[in-house]
Amino acid sequence: MRRYVFFLMISCSIAGTFLSCNPRPAGEQNAASDSNAARFKKQSDHTVAATLERDARFAVDAAGSGMTEAELGITAVDKASEKLVRQLGDSMAHEYAIANAALKGIAAKKNISIPAAPADGNLLHELRGIKGTAFDDRYLQQVKKMHGSDIELFKRYISAGKDSDLLRWAILRLPVLEQHLEYIKTVGSMVMQQRRTY
């Protein structure tokens, strides 16, 4: 038993895939947020620090969610049974990789810490453990839910955010997220329709 546990620990360490061996839903985001809060409080007065923290919190949340969406997309390409779901996953992985890279560039320029790993490791761990139609259903359910949450996050930031670069990114990104949500709903309906004709 000890040998098995030791082997499992070494495997996780070598692979570097803590998401599959040790899901961490919020640790990365909390660490990034704490780092930002401490930095801004040292550099600015209370009002300015609060504004910078709000902008940074949006960047942290958007980055964590974006990385989760990209990883879910990659997983869908591998695990989904329906071609439509695999195509959706491939599209999401590609588009989120581009958006995440743009956000990472803005964060680096603003000296904002963002998480280095997806926000929801538990969800990724769960979905990597299933396949076939069960995967399709769970994936579609989750990306629909996440896009709804992201749209609300972006709308709130657009109405209250201050950083011009983050605002520009969010304003350009919001219609894309809304289009994604409609695409996800359409794929879900088409998958259900196909199942009824089998």
Automatic annotation (TrEMBL):
- What organism is the protein native to? Niabella pedocola
Keyword set, alphabetical order: Signal
Q: What is the lineage of its organism?
A: Bacteria, Pseudomonadati, Bacteroidota, Chitinophagia, Chitinophagales
The answer to whether the entry has keyword Metal-binding is no
A Pfam cross-reference name: DUF4142
Q: What is this protein called?
A: DUF4142 domain-containing protein
Question: Where is the DUF4142 domain positioned along the sequence?
Answer: 54-185
Give the signal peptide range: 1-20
